[in-house]
Structures are given as C-alpha cells and as structure tokens.
Amino acid sequence: MRDQANTLLFDLTDFLPFQMSVIAGRAFQQIMEVAGMQVPEWRIMMALPAHQPCSSQDLCVLTAMDAARVSRAQRRLEDLDMISVVRDTADRRRLVVRLSDKGTEEVTRLKFLAREIESTILEELGPEDRACLKTTIGGLYERL
To answer: Which residues form a coiled coil (predicted)?
Structure first.
C-alpha cells in the first residue's frame, strides 16, 4: 500500500505549468485590483489598440477566450463606455468592436500598470536572465 502511495506522489509546486499559472494568477490579481475589472475585460482592452476595429470572433482568437466569455466581457465594457459595439453594415451577423475615447485613455493607464507589475515580478532577474526567460516563454507560447 505504501509503495502505491509513493507512486501516486506528485509535487505540484515542482510542476512548471502550475508554477506559471500561479505566477500569472498573482500578477493578474494585482492588475485587476488596481484596474477594477476582470481578466476577460482586460484582455479585450489590451488587444483592441493593435487590432481595431475587429469582430467579436477576432477577439476570441486574439484573447484566447471562448465566444461566451468574450460576449459577457464586451457587454460589461460597453456598459462602462470603454468600447463601442456596432453591427457591421456589410454583414449584419458581424459585430464590430472599437475602443471609445474613455477606453483609449484607460488602455494607456492599463499598459503602464501591466508593465510596472511585470517589472516588479522580474526585478530579481538580471537583464540577460530576463531576456532568456521572455524568449523561452515566447517560444513555448508560439508552439502551444
């Protein structure tokens, strides 16, 4: 019985995906507390500047979220006057999303906040280690 228990042991804290998830979760928690929004809204806000106008379907791809989550986040952002969502005149099934003036101002604040928190997380690393970490994680992200 003891041998079976030993074969089932798994140190979660030594599992890289778990470590990455915890680090990301803590970073997002800090951002969300200051930003006053949830991760789905933040992802949309940060994706839009480089890709607007875009469709809701595009946002699903850009933010790695399903359509239901994007739709809920869009509604919340629209209620906050951060974005505008209008029907495409050429394709009535398509919703076109853009940042509002208020949303554009908020993105400026959110970008600064995100970089500040990222710097705090990475401050223990030297410049070479930071570059190596970013390259390695970027490569993993591209492959997945």
So the answer is: none
